[in-house]
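Ops channel
N.P.: pipeline sanity check, posting one input/output pair.
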């Protein structure tokens, strides 16, 4: 869940984040900070891959971002951080290193 402006939106971690983000913005998740500094419409597009089908349309989300940009950016950063943490590969164990 992400809350900003007058919206409370359910979120989930997409399996194909980069593909969805590139389709929505032309940028990959590695470039998300560029999107977050580019204005409400691009910020809303960075959020889109995490939203379910019941989410409001893009312009509604962008207007809510414009009304509470700091909270939207903070929430989106948390979603991407959670995604990075969940997809990080664990360090090789010592037994793996000896093999």
């Amino acid at each position: 869940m992400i809350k900003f402006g007058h919206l409370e939106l359910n979120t989930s971690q997409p399996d194909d984040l980069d593909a969805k983000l590139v389709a929505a913005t032309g940028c990959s998740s590695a470039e998300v900070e560029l999107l977050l500094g580019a204005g409400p419409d691009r910020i809303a597009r960075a959020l889109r891959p995490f939203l379910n089908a019941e989410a409001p349309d893009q312009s509604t989300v962008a207007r809510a971002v414009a009304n509470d940009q700091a909270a939207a950016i903070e929430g989106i950063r948390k979603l991407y951080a959670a995604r990075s943490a969940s997809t990080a590969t664990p360090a090789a164990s010592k037994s793996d290193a000896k093999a």
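N.P.: looks fine end to end. Residues 2-98 form one domain.
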